[in-house]
Amino acid sequence: LVAILWSKFWDLTVSGVTLGSVYALVALGYSMVYGILKLLNFAHGDVYMIGAFMGFFALRWLGGPVDPNVAAWIAVTFMFLIAMVACGGLGVVIERFAYRPLRNAPRIAPLISALGVSFFLQNSALLLFGASFRDYDTFDLIGGKTYHYGNVYLSVPQLLTIVSAIALMVMLTLLVARTRIGKAMRATSFDREAASMMGIDVDRVIASTFFIGSALAGAAGVMFALVFGQIYHFMGFLAGLKGFTAAVIGGIGSIPGAMLGGLLVGLAESYATGYLPRGSTFQNLYVFALLILIILIRPSGILGKADVNKV
Amino acid sequence: MADELTPPPVDQPRIGVDEWVASVEGRRDTYRGASGAVRRAWDALPVWGRLLVFLVPAAIFPLITSTGNIFRFGLITLLYGLLALGLNITVGFAGLLDLGYIAFFGFGAYAYGFVASGYTDRHWPAVAAVPLAIAVAAAVGLVVGLPSRRLVGDYLAIVTLFFGQAFVVFANNADQINFPFVGHVDLTGDANGLDNIDPLDVLGWTVNTTKEFYYFTLAAFVLAMTLIYLANESRTGRAWRALREDPLSAEVMSIPVNRLKLMAFVFGAGTAGFAGAIYGSVQTGAFPGDYDVGLLITIYAIVILGGAGSLAGIVVGAIIVNGVPELLRDANQAEWVFYTAIAIALFVTVRPWRRLAAVIGATIGLGFALHAIADAWFPRWTSGSANEGRLAHWVGSWILLPGHPTQVANWAYGILIAAILVLTLLHGIWRTVALVPTIYLGAFVWENLLVEQTAGATRFILLGALLVVLMNVRPQGLFGTARVEIA
Predict the structure, then answer these.
(1) Backbone angles phi, psi at B30, to 5 degrees
(2) Contacts of A104 in chain B (CB under 8 A)
């Protein structure tokens, strides 16, 4: 029995880490926005979906996966760039028109607004792109080559996803820790009012937070589509839920927490699919159970700080 | 002494009076014109009088229209209204953002179907089955509400949203669960759902036709509304409102916060379960696809549009949110609804009337001019055919209808959204100027893209946009009272 379980272990780990990288990128957007605005951005999952579609159209514009006009690696880079810029812009627009006017409204108002934006984006995608699945045809673009090290097999899109996710996270960490705008972000999330009194342009900081978070979600959308091949208008809903779950598990507002949480959720989903009874059907319920468990044991998440409620 | 007691003139700020209270009093003075008269009459009505204002037309409605209309406009509106009443307890009174609400609706339908359907071959009478459905939904509500004791607003939202998703997965797959001691039980059918659900049969009266269902649901709605009204006026209701405004202060005032949160969840879920039992019986089946996010957003739109916490708002919200999209289903009616809505919006927002006349004239002129230019030089742009109906025919000579509209209309849709967003940033004369092409562009997108999908995407796009706009313009909804946030 152990041998049977072990034989699947590395495959599940690899796909878990791949999924986890995607979730971690989505979770980062949630976590950063929540850290600064204390707002649960329901539309984030749909930004991720738009990212996947932008990558798809970028690829079509370059001549399609079978016979692109440029080398494959340029095509992939271009897809990432287009998706990230478009999603970043979309995030800024959403913030400007749906959340900024509500900054001093009761807490429930921006949540409802976010719900509306999410639903609007989903159904706009349905209207414009149709209800059918679109295929990335990654196989034609990149080929079916796999690398292996002992028992660990990695396909090219998986490797690409993991490596680029790590690269993006390193860049984000450096940005937040070393640059001026990163410093401003940390200050704003610590205390928005005090930050604005210190001469920080809070609106600009929030807009750039949305840009970065949404761009990461766009990249995650392209990664997911490269690995799993198919995209459709409703794909953002579950990814958004899982991304938020990851952010909560890791400790919302914490950047390393979001990465850790994403990895945990990805691995949990993957192992649940492989090992637990009827896992491929109920994987999401197992992730849900994990979320409930973490919230009950440690409501502030693994790396989060406990919140002190002030009057 | 007497001098000190007489209030100072209203236009001066009064010391010691909350600014907000003063502004509300001021607004009450300005109920003018026809709408003011209606407002005053409404405020003067006793509660039972307000109920009659709704009940009398609702009771007459089925007598004057066709069966199809009773179902589409009457029964479904009432069911949505019943659902919204329950959601109003959780969200409107207690202020808990419950995004798994539709699951309780589903639990009600499945519980009813489980004990009273041809699928499971059990036929309990409705007097036993409906209370069971309510009890099951309320019990699940209790379980889901338990984490609400520890979770602050947003965490609760995501947990309940996940729960709603989990319910759909459960409903799709709970036909193959093996229970210890009992063995294999088919709880929910599979993706095909439970079918052959029995009609409601209440003490000898079998509710079977659409009209009977309508009256039964109307009775249920009025009953639920009365109970909820009484609950809201009671000590519990006041405690809920205190909880909604500020949980921490409520707790400090020794209000049992946790118990009240659970009660709000249980009551809301029970109402949804009741609605679910009726819905299952109306549909003669419970299908997993019915309990999805689309319905959740619809019910939220009703509660938010009407004004969270207001019962009159629920009625009006349900009529608007269900009625308007239903009107849109018929292409000919859809034309009328669209252009009437635009006209009303213009009449309400554009002042003075000279400017209004200029906007309308310019829009019509722009359309004919563009149409004439396109006719002369770019015939491809006018080769499409108009929809059926007299208005559509007339509109066809005003709006551009390209022969192959899909690509163009998709781009126009994106541009339209951008144009509307930019419009909100402009002020004064520039806004008026920009309004003209925006309206024309809106009509273009409507005719070439949105009108095709009125049953699906368009309906939900409008609902999503409605939520965002409402939150920005009037967060308290039509009938709600504005909340003051005291920092």
Answers:
(1) -100, 20
(2) 485
Instruction: Tell me which residue in B461, B471, B483 faces A123 most closely, judged by beta carbons.
Output: B461
User: Using one digit for the tens of pLDDT, what is the confidence trace for B254-306?
Assistant: 888 889 989 999 999 999 999 999 998 888 888 888 888 889 988 998 998 88
List C-alpha distances in Å: B202 to B27, B78, B128, B206. 49, 19, 10, 6
Residue type, B237: G
Token duo for residue A34: 């929540």
Average pLDDT, chain B: 82
What pTM does this model have? 0.88
Measured between alpha carbons, how far is residue B419 from residues A18, A268, B435, B436, B446 in Å?
A: 40, 44, 9, 11, 15
| Contacts of B480 by beta carbon, 8 Å cutoff, 6+ apart | B306, B307, B308, B309, B310, B313
**Containing H/E element for B92?**
none
| A311·B248 Cβ contact <8 A | yes
Cβ contacts of A198 within 8 Å, gap of 6 or more: A187
Task: Give the pLDDT confidence score for residue B19 in this predicted structure.
Answer: 57
Band (pLDDT 50/70/90 cuts) for residue B1 is very low
pLDDT at B3: 46
Instruction: Judge: B466–A102 Cβ closer than 8 Å, yes or no.
Output: no
Of A37, A53, A241, A258, the residue nearest A168 (C-alpha): A258
- pLDDT band per the 50, 70, 90 thresholds, residue B24: low
CB–CB of B485 and A98 under 8 A?
no
Question: How large is the ipTM?
Answer: 0.87
pLDDT tier for residue A43 given thresholds of 50, 70 and 90: very high
Chain length of chain A: 311
From residue B440, alpha-carbon distances to B371, B377, B390, B485 in Å are 12, 20, 20, 40
Give contacts of A26 with chain B, Cβ < 8 Å: none
Helix orientation angle between A44-61 and A108-129, rounded to the nearest 10 degrees: 30
Is the CB of B475 less than 8 angstroms away from the CB of A124?
A: no
Beta strands, E only, A165-244: 230-231
CB contact under 8 A, B472 and A102: yes
d(C-alpha A72, C-alpha A76), whole Å: 6
Pick the closest to residue A127 from B464, B302, B441 (CA basis).
B464
3-state secondary structure (DSSP) of residue A307: coil
Q: Which one has a higher pLDDT value, A272 or A108? A: A272
The partner residue sitting opposite B169, judged by closest CB among A102, A118, A282, is A282
